[in-house]
Amino acid sequence: MDGLLLIPIGLPMMAGVVLLVSSFSEYRRGTAAGGVGKGLFGLVSGVMGISVVLALTAAWLGDREMELFSLLKGIPVYFRVDEAGRLFVTLVSIVWLLVTVYALTYMREEKNAKRFFGFWLLLYGVLVGLDFAGNLVTMYLFYELMTLASMPLVLHDGSRESVMAALKYLFYSLCGAYGGLFGIFFLHRYCESLTFTSGGTLNAAAIQGQEGTVLAAVFVMILGFGVKAGMLPFHAWLPTAHPVAPSPASAVLSAIIVKSGVLALLRVVFYVAGTDFLRGTWVQYGWMLLSLLTVFTGSILAYREKVFKKRLAYSTVSQVSYILFGLSLFEADAMTGAILHVVFHAFVKCGLFLTAGIFLHCLHRQRVEELAGIGKRMPVLMWSYTLLSLALTGIPPACGFISKWYLARGALQSQAGTFSWLGPVILLVSALLTAGYLLPVSMKGFFPGKTDNDMEMRTSERERKCPSGMLLPVVLLAGTAILTGIFPNPLIRYASDVAGKLLGMKGLG
């Protein structure tokens, strides 16, 4: 028993609920309705700071586990720190803290800021619980709570468009989660335990003669949890939800929430079903095929999209399936690349969505063609955007090159038949498309043509200065994208150790 695991889960969740149901004033005296008061600032900042410190302490200071209570005989609500949970909770905490700094400035003039931050704190606690979950049932409970806590962030402004986007997000997410629940029912019968164990927990005697049924159940779970990860054909909620959500919510949807789908797939495939059972089956090849189709289709849709936040949403569809493809190969280098891309994509895409929020908040521009010439007025922001774009494209020395190198090398070394060469080809084509839909924004931003200059002059009266509280997180994320590309070895060693444990090998260092 280790109660320290419960504090970073329970503290932000309780603070969020108290904030939602209390009469705590979100307004400053003498300002228009909607202005966020210092009391709310202080409460959110304090709870987030304490929660992040406690979460990181619980994750990194020793192995911990705790059984809270039993739902049914042999099915406890159980938390445990392992290598995957440690990585994901660290990523969630860093991103959440940076976006909170951004959000406290962004929400100053927004209505219903108290409600936003209530669900914001609640969602962070749920995500920590999801990352620390020690078995499939506990993971599923927090997975469903994550959907319910994040949906209000999508419908925050209350417009018809945002309500419809939130309902679409809810429908897709619940249907996907029910696919996961369907698989849990089957796996409970054929597994020795639902507790996460490297190598899997399938009972060889129980599945004898029932291999087809178990394979079908695992594939349904891959499809179900793949909904949250934006895998085809269930990706449509992302480009609908991202543009209408407040920019801080868009950032964590892309950087963190979709990674929860990745974590769920990681748990099912490597900690319950096991790669020995799935290797060479139609489930593995079907997963690889869907992943590569998603990579290519998402890149094409992003390249054609003119609304900037939608473009970034389609980019997320593509980039997250880089991770899924690497995991589906069951090869050490590819898995190392996938784990690295979990980290790198979270930082980069978070920074890009926060940049899009500044374009909207300060410039009132949301279409790509409206962004010409802004490099002259916001050079620090545009240089940060450019560095983040280089990282996502995979141009050295930015971090994206490292993860994509390992993904391509792992694919070439795998025994995946056609996919061993088709994968690197599609990844290369996707990288070229990524450059095609991100870098022209920088080029037009710094070097607008005559027509672009005319448009800029007509809209410049609506501009306002970018607050430092919104600019700083973007600069830090851009710096992180470059520094982790120049000094990647500690992350590579950790990712290879995780990959090695999941495949029953020693870390690759």
Automatic annotation (TrEMBL):
GO terms for cellular component: plasma membrane. GO terms for biological process: ATP synthesis coupled electron transport. Pfam families: Proton_antipo_M, Proton_antipo_N. It is found in: Cell membrane; Membrane. PANTHER family: HYDROGENASE-4 COMPONENT F, NADH-UBIQUINONE_PLASTOQUINONE. Keywords: Cell membrane, Membrane, Oxidoreductase, Transmembrane, Transmembrane helix. The keyword DNA damage does not apply. One of its GO terms (molecular function) is NADH dehydrogenase (ubiquinone) activity. Residues 133-422 form the NADH:quinone oxidoreductase/Mrp antiporter transmembrane domain. Belongs to the CPA3 antiporters (TC 2.A.63) subunit A family. This is Hydrogenase-4 component B.
